[in-house]
Amino acid sequence: MGTGGLHLHPMFITIANIDCDIRMKTSSHAWECVAYIPIVDADTFPMHSDFTSILHDRVWHACVDKVVASLKVAAQYGRMMADPRGDLRLAHTLLVGWIADLPEQLMISAVSGACSPSSMATTKGFGDGKVYPPRTGQYTLSKIRALFTNGIDPWDIPRWLNASKAAGLSGVHQPFWRDWPFADPSRFLTPEILHTVHKFFFDHPLNWCKVRVGQPELDARFISMHRRVGFRHFSTGICRVKQLTGREHRDIQRTIVPAIYGAVEPDFVSAMSALIDFFYQAQAPVFTDGSIDDMVRSLELFHSKKQIFLTSGSRAGKRGGMEHFNIPKLGLFPGFAFAIKEMGAIFQYSADVSEKLLGTDAKVPFRSTNHRDFEEQCVRHLDRRDKIRFFHLYTTLKFNGASLQNIISVAKPTVTTLHPASEWLSHVVPGEDRRLGAPRSIRNFFCEQDNIDAQIAHHVTKRPDLPSTTIAAIAVQYQLHDIPAAIGDYLRGVPFDNRLSPRCLEDNDHLPFRFVDLHVWHKFKIQHIASLQPNLILPAQTVKAVPPSISHPWGDCDAVRCELSEEQTKRAC
């Protein structure tokens, strides 16, 4: 983190057995900042860039070694700790995961940039799609011991650095994980979604599309896309923007395949589609053996067709076209399947949380300091912030006569809450949970309908946009002259498959209901329950059905995909 010429590296820690949905929300306070690690600045210590890099890495490992010293002892011998009920238990603090981007993973694993931090792949193997054996911690330590055996002094920097590069090492001679029981970089370095997937897409595949389609044409296609409520519309295109956040990267990924369709070769579309499929499959919240196999097949399909990016000249740099796929992040993708089987769903190992914590636990406290001895002032700021939060919780419970012990409810909640403290207060002191700074809860439209077993909820406003409008007027305003016939077919139960011609209502045919006026809404909200997490209600999405107007000659309507049961299909119109 840069702070106006002053640099520090915050380090955050959490407990692995916290539910991932809670752990991924910074408002849940599931992470703690445990250290501000100094950074070796080349301006302060002018030297060769290689020397700056090796000293920076050594300082980082030495600092982390001191921070986690007690955790190593507890991992080896165990330590009595209180559980949520206050009972003492013997706990072993093992290192099970470390969320970091690729440069930090290389620094942590103590290997050079020409190697993968988690596998035996090297530069020439980054783009071949093969699954390489894991680069275990013992293998890396054996390489370091070999340098000592050869009589090389680790503080003879030029000689040690040359020997380290030849062995595929970074030059760190004492990695912090060397004496941490069961700590292995090939296992605890989890795939990181924000940089490994989304930033990779922005830096490479998106550039291939820009080169092949052409920036003006690609911008025009994104500008002409349909606008949807809740999703960013790139009104000026995507090629002129120099820097985008991870959210914009995700938004572009959603539509990049249809955006390039028709402007590139079919194999280009197939390869890009396979890569996007792999990205989405890798971010699934739940996996089975079959879904992992599908993810692997998508990556294999991409590698089988990726040659089109070279032959078409799409993979190009500042010096022109390239003839290889030696991209370090691309070399991490084959290891996703192994990581999922070892660590579970990898969507939880994204740097989105740490990027936000960087602001709340480092940048914000720094701005409140006088910029002199700011580390101590930042720590005091965090300490007082936590004390205020706990004091507020304590006084709220005591003032309302509630128990200070959060008794876990045996009954399974119908809706998952991602803020434990506010959920606790909502049960014991209703109405006080808002005062804890919890995020605004998602409005649950399922509570407002009669069918409690429904998987979809709809919501409209009290006042319709077109109250008491005749069907004939609706047909004219929406320029859909078969609306009366469509309603009639639906109410009569005419199956869609049996209607082989356009809907047609005879002059002497009357609709089978008594009223003739309908209320019309130009938009409504639809809400789903997560298919793989039945207790999680997703945020509602807005569906538009705006009639044609001067600003929208063809109307402004969203497409909706419906999955119907066999009985519902018979009645579909």
Provide an overview of this structure:
It is a single chain. This protein is α+β, with helices and mostly antiparallel strands and 573 residues long. The chain is 41% helix and 10% strand. It has helices spanning 20-23, 49-67, 69-77, 102-109, 137-149, 157-166, 185-188, 193-203, 205-213, 215-223, 246-260, 266-282, 289-305, 307-311, 336-343, 352-367, 374-399, 420-428, 471-478, 483-492, 566-571; strands at residues 2-3, 6-13, 32-38, 79-82, 88-91, 316-317, 320-321, 456-459, 466-470, 517-520, 523-528, 541-546, 556-557. The strands form 5 sheets. It has a 4-stranded antiparallel β-sheet with strand order 8-11-12-13, with no helix packed on it. Strand 4 and strand 5 (88-91) form a beta hairpin. The protein is globular, with a radius of gyration of 29 Å. It starts with a strand and ends with a helix. 22% of the residues are buried.
What would the keywords be for this entry?
573 residues; alpha+beta; 4-stranded antiparallel sheet; 3-stranded antiparallel sheet; 21 helices; Zn-finger domain-containing protein; DUF6830
Helix amount, in percent? 40-55%
Report mean pLDDT, rounded to a whole number.
85
Radius of gyration: 29 Å
In total, the number of domains comes to 4
Q: What is the number of helices?
A: 21
How are the strands of the largest sheet arranged?
Answer: 8-11-12-13
**Care to count the β-strands?**
13
User: Major sheet, described briefly?
Assistant: 4 strands, antiparallel
**Strand content bin:** 5-15%
Secondary-structure map:
Blueprint: E1 2-3, E2 6-13, H1 20-23, E3 32-38, H2 49-67, H3 69-77, E4 79-82, E5 88-91, H4 102-109, H5 137-149, H6 157-166, H7 185-188, H8 193-203, H9 205-213, H10 215-223, H11 246-260, H12 266-282, H13 289-305, H14 307-311, E6 316-317, E7 320-321, H15 336-343, H16 352-367, H17 374-399, H18 420-428, E8 456-459, E9 466-470, H19 471-478, H20 483-492, E10 517-520, E11 523-528, E12 541-546, E13 556-557, H21 566-571
Helix pairs in contact: 8-11, 9-10, 11-12, 12-13, 16-17
